[in-house]
Amino acid sequence: MIRAKLLLSCLSLIIMAPPQEKPRQAPAIPEGISRSDVGCYKDCLTISNQVAKVVTCERGGRILVYQRDDKNILFLRDESNWDPNGKGLAKQLSGGRFDIGPEQIQSRGDLLWNGDWNATATAPRQITMTSQVDPDSGLQVVRVFQLDESTSQLTITQNVTNKGRDTVRQCYWSRTLAVHGGVAIVPCDATRSLMPNLYCMAPNGKTLNVRPEDPAVRHVDDFLVIDGPPEFAKLGMDSVKGWVAYQSPHDQLLLKKYPVFDVGQYGDLAGYNLSIWYPNKDRLAACEVEPIGPTKTLQPGESDSFTVQWWLLSRKFPKSGTVDPHAVEKFVAPMLK
């Protein structure tokens, strides 16, 4: 009898005992995702395939490295002593930057531009970066970086949501800092451009020259070829072809492809949808290649999205230093289909 009671008691304990939890496994890392150290930045989420490598950075929600053949097309400087309270260019983080505009209208705080973002690997060769809500504009920005499985094609989508209480006008603004010393190739269309010389120049951020003439800017048929820093760094174009290329002196060609819309939908200065900012090297050793999206009005709770595609291609820099835009157009034609 005693043995039976003991047996029943043991069985009761076994039945009532909670099941032991299985050891938790770390979430699987998606294919093509790793971590890299770049300068003062540690454990940066990185996307790579057999051709290209993209290193992201949570400070500023940007790209530190976009490379092939171990060469980074982006201008990246030592930021270990970066001062968020600095003045002018001292406060400017480098690399592949992104922003919201219109430049002369949109008010946004440093939280979007220089603040900390949250980066997550969300799919094979895909990283999603999410900003905090900017108290100045009420906007929150999400950027998705997707590298192709086998080429250098990088698709970048910027999603903006109005989390505030006020109506906001905003647009996509790319501010990629490429290495200095290259040549920018901009396809235009004289029959559709509203600019007499196919571009305008901003001498000081307050005035606009709509008939600039500068020896650094060549007209080749319907192309603008910017061979180096012009007298004033900032140029604007209403390019309707939806692409821009930058031939670096390190035998690489950066190609950007982006959608274009009617000129009336753009809110930057002269309604341009592309800007090139090319300062002298002693000011900043970079050339900024800036596709711009149309201006959208967002009511509280509304969102907007804009997508740009990048390629980094191997292409020799001509010994003459003179880039033929027709040859460039033919070279990138497969990507533009």
Could you characterize the architecture of this molecule?
By secondary structure, the protein is mainly beta. The chain is built from three helices and 22 strands. The strands form three sheets. It has a ten-stranded antiparallel beta sheet with strand order 7-8-9-10-22-18-17-12-15-14, with helices on one face. A hairpin with a 2-residue loop joins strand 7 and strand 8. The N and C termini lie far apart (87 Å). The mean pLDDT is 92.
Ends apart, CA distance between termini: 87 Å
Total number of β-strand segments?
Answer: 22
What is the name of the CATH topology?
Answer: Beta-galactosidase, Chain A, domain 5
Output the structural class: mainly beta
Q: What is the class in the CATH system?
A: Mainly Beta
* Total of domains: 1
Question: Radius of gyration in whole Å, from Cα?
Answer: 25 Å
Low-confidence stretches: none
User: What's the overall geometry?
Assistant: globular
**Biggest sheet architecture:** 10 strands, antiparallel
Q: Give the integer mean of the pLDDT values.
A: 92
> What level of helicity do the residues show?
under 10%
Pick out its properties.
single chain, 337 residues, 9% helix, mainly beta, seven-stranded antiparallel sheet, Beta-galactosidase, Chain A, domain 5
SSE map:
Layout: H1 2-16, E1 33-38, E2 41-48, E3 52-57, E4 62-68, E5 71-72, E6 96-101, H2 110-113, E7 118-123, E8 126-130, E9 139-147, E10 154-162, E11 168-179, E12 183-187, E13 200-202, E14 217-220, E15 223-226, E16 234-237, E17 243-248, E18 252-257, E19 274-277, E20 286-291, E21 296-298, E22 303-314, H3 325-336
Antiparallel strand pairs: 1-2, 2-3, 3-4, 4-5, 6-11, 7-8, 8-9, 9-10, 10-22, 11-20, 11-21, 12-15, 12-17, 13-16, 14-15, 16-19, 17-18, 18-22, 19-20
